[in-house]
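Lecture 7 notes: from sequence to structure.

We start with a single chain of 254 residues. Read the sequence below before looking at the structure.
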Amino acid sequence: MNYPAPDTFRKPNKIPLRQSAFLLDVHTHSIASGHYTSDTVTDMARFAASRGIKLLGISEHGPALPHACTLSYFRGLSHAPSVRMGIRILYGAEVNILDASGSLDLPEDIRGKLDYCIAGIHSPCFGAPHSADYTDVYIRAMVNPHIHIIAHPDDAKYPVDYRRLTEAAMDCHVLLEINNASLSPDGYRGAAKENDRAILETCKKYRYPVLLSSDSHGHSDIGNFKYALDLVRETAFPAELILNTSAERFLRFL
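Now the structure, written as tokens:
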């Protein structure tokens, strides 16, 4: 296996483990995703700037999720402004993994024109848990071109082998996210804390970076990594392996 581990991820540094150290959030949703919020991208950019965020990623849900964006929406993102309210904006998608073969609901030609793509399992698109090996499902999705991040791989409904998943992520140059919404008291993904702990411990062993994500629907939780940060501290996860501390390092990873 080929484990990409640039020097910048090998050398310990003194990044303080506090909320203000995190300068980017790329798993967020506006009104275009069709649920939970009336906030526009401009609303979200304004709030992100007020919180000291330097890079905001808008990752609307793919078209297989009910009431989400159409293909034409994603095609039009190439014309959207890359700077709003003085901060850098990336336009991506949270594409849906549709079946055990790892097929996705956004065609490759559209994915290739976005700034980044997150892939995740959502029960309205994938269906109820069954006998599939979900580690293999995620891996089959990862090998699709232009997939950069796996969304909430902590979902207890879809159990995986985190050692094998991390090794595959390293081979595919894909990030595993630590999803703050999963870890919140209102989270609905089951034993997410133990699963995220396993992700952090495995990535720490391999010296492979992770990404903290708010999964904010609307502006209110943009840049909120409270529960993820608590777990990072509990596991003594190295600060230099958290890509949220530098927009430059995250963009270089992409």
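Residues 92 and 114 are 5 Å apart (CA to CA). Keep this in mind for problem set 3.
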